[in-house]
Model the fold of this input.
Amino acid sequence: MEKSLARYIWDHTRPQQLFILLIVALSMIPYYLAFDLPKQIVNGPIQGSGFDQPGDTELFMPISFDIPFWGHVELYGGLPLERMPSLLALSLTFLVLVIINGLFKYYINTYKGRLGERLLRRIRYELVDRILRFPPKYFKHVKAGEVSSMVKDEVEPLGGFTADAFVQPALLGGQALTALIFIFIQHFWLGFIAFAMAMIQVGIIPRMRRRLIELGRERQITARQLAGRVAEIVDGIGTIHAYDTSNYERADIAARLGHIFRIRYDIYQWKFLVKFLNNFLAQLTPFLFYCIGGYLTIVGKLDVGQLVAVINAYKELPGPLKELIDWELVRQDVQVKYEQVVEQFDADNLIEPEIQALNAANGTMLNHPLSATNLVLEDDIGGRVLEHVSVKISPGETVAIIGTAASGGDRLAEALGRIIWPAGGKVTAGDDDLYALPESVTGRRISYASPDAYFFHGSLEDNLLYGVKHAPVEPAAYKGAASDQRKWDVLEAQRSGNPDFDLKGNWIDLETLHANGSAGLFGSMMAVLDIVELSDDVLQLALHSTLPADAEVAPAVAAEIVALRRDLREELNRRDMNNLVIPFEEDAYNTEAPVAENLFFGMMPDPKASTRAIVKTSYFRNIMRESGLGDALFKMGQGIAESTVELFKDLPPDHPFFEQLTYMRGDEIPTYQHLLQRLRHNATPSDEDRIALIRLSFFYVEPRHRFGVLDEALMRKIVEVRHQFHANLPPELQGYIERYDPNAYLTSGTLVDNIVFGKLNHRYSDAVPKLREIGGDLLRKRPELYRALMALGLESNVGAGGRRLNNLQRLKLSLARALIRRSDYYIFNRPLSGLDHHLQEHIVEAALAFLAKSGDNPAVVWVLSNTPLAKHFKRVLAFDGGTLVEDGAYDTIVESGTVYKQLIA
Amino acid sequence: MILNDEVQMLRRVPLFSGIDAAKLKLLAFASNRVCYREGQELFHQGDEGDAAYVVLSGVVDVYKAGPSGDEKIASAGCCSVVGEIAILCGTARNATVKASTAVEALRISKDCFLKVLSTCPRSMAETMRVVGQRLAHSH
Done:
């Protein structure tokens, strides 16, 4: 990248800079005219010079020039006006000039702003572009947080400066010069004083600020390191908790903040010292004007109008001057920042842009053998991890790589997958160096999967299809305003040197997928999810999420789900298992649900907050009072409290039995004990006591707690009050609760809530697996619904880095992401390490069968974490100590090789 | 059946005979009432032992894996305890227990079971007797 910021800016914005300079120059004319007017107004109409007699006129706005070597040119002779009209005319002219100056300023500022933003966009893009082109080794030394802080924050001031890089010195210099020249014209010596003072300011101040720039650089580096550390804390939060090092991290952050504080405080001290000096020098000049100019006026060498004009003009001088000095400082500051960033983003062996060039054609096949010749690989500290390995893999071969963890086989796979670059030797595809081939060939015709695969924030589907988004194959269709917007986007992207690839277009070429008959994209996804045995997880994700109300399929899915609910009930009846679920029924008490749920009889999006809001209302309280249920529940709560206190009063608070106590905290036992005592002595309980006990009754589930405080009569009563409660539910409460209706879909519930639509009987430990089994069978009879649910599951977010998935799911997804691509070579680098052996075998078999029948006859290189699985491959490479020790057909390696025997021993 | 009824049942279990009523009630409260259909397994030989069961109603059969498949070695009915050996000895389940009729039982988690027994010296002696008996029985 260009080392000098000024040059970088000039190279990319030259025409615009020249244009804006021209505009600035033009703006000087009204600017200067506005200076001269006050003098004319004061000396002319106000003081009356030239209007000595009533009726005298002066010429208004004569336009004439003296052109050297030419003579006097008169364009307009001027309009003769009397004293009052003259005053008015001159004042109005002044007003017009003020407006023109303002408009010029407005135009220049917006133009500059846009220019700056474009350059900022260009720099940021260029930096990220370089990140994408860095050699893999670079990333072992950088912290993600620091790099993102550079791209985001550190280049930000560069944008602001861009616009000012040439315009500001021209504008301000012009203004200052204009003011100075004006003062010179009025009076040479006063002009000279102003000039001398200005020179002192311009000379001294920047020198003093040099220290400030150094501090600024230090501040930048420390702030960047802070960003890096914060990102590290976020990434490593698990380790920090596991080893109780949070206070070590606190100490580290505090130390860094202290360091930054010291630097910033230092900066303030210098900054305000310089400011003080600057202000002092600026104020010294008017002192001289008043003193000397006043003297000159008194002795008659200067007229009052001139003095006023000089002082007026001088008012305009310190402003531009100060800004000019500020500009110089900003320039130095951003130059430093720019150098810093460029230094960080400078790497010798960047990947050539041609290698990553966009290519929408998918025709090129890699039907040459993939070979490593004398390949040497090194780790970070230069240790050899692979020594002079030569191996050739032909199209269509299935190759297993076996060996211990550090034997070098996985490194070879990394080199074939272009994860690491060779330190010696070559990796070639046919005659071409693998690293010289465009990524549109290597990145598509070779699919690599390993356990440390990264997942991007987004949906499961986004991640599954990530590996096929090489180029937009079909532009998005835009209409009306969106089309204009798109045109604008393209134009602006080009103006900032950004690519205009359309993110909203279709990036998925079905040709690049293992399309499964006519099922297309969805069919391909289902097929690979089945192979890696992830389909069930996806289905579970869908079932445990709520149906997005805005989804197009929502009404159809909801209807199907309600139908499935009925199917489930019938099926349970048929199998005589209807006691597994106690359904929600309008007129029946649900014995497995707590009292509150029976009373409110509806789904609450946020049960705690909703209950709290509902019980506060007078509507609810009236119903409770009038029906007598309040009293009944109060008595019930009293019974629960008595039994609980009796059970737990002598237990130490850390006793494991407290885990079973769900409706009361261990430390609340004494509180309730006191409450019960008060009730025994005092007939009328306080409101608070009533609420506390009724609250207890809300959590009560008879079959679970078994205190025998809930009888048939009370259950009937609760159902009665349930009806009353819902009969006239005020609109403001309706948002809190969605009434259970066996024939309607509960929008605030998950899909599983909607299918089961009842409470599981907790006495049957196998209720969940049984229901899952029956539900699965029923779902298979509704392929449309199954498909919709899978689509819904694929939309679930995987979280940052895929953290919302568990490790097993991540491994499976990583493999699926590679399998879904049509490639000529599949390099699998222990993709299933950590899975149990049965599952590994299933998946390896299924994946090999899937690739074999795909029709492309691809080669598969699989680094096995489970050696016996080598039997599924035709050829076996055995590695030991960084060298290839055996290479041959499976049978020979197993029979005559030593590595295989050692590994399975 | 409410807590107090369960306590009455627990009193009839020899292992708990030395424990006072209040403790038994607590034990009952801390345990889950579970139901099994006929033929359903309570636990399987070789599984990790995480709970003991007190049969409240119905009959369970105890099976041991033998050379010719599972062999039934015993049956247990109301007020008997099954699955306590794995908890007391910290070993895997040494037998499979299946419901031979519809069964209701009290599932006592390992922590609760050990905690209650450890509070009562008489129970400890009783425990040792039971363990010894079972061991003698199985060899």
Notes: Chain A has four domains: 5-344, 370-499+800-904, 546-584+742-795, 594-732. Chain A has 32 helices and 20 strands.
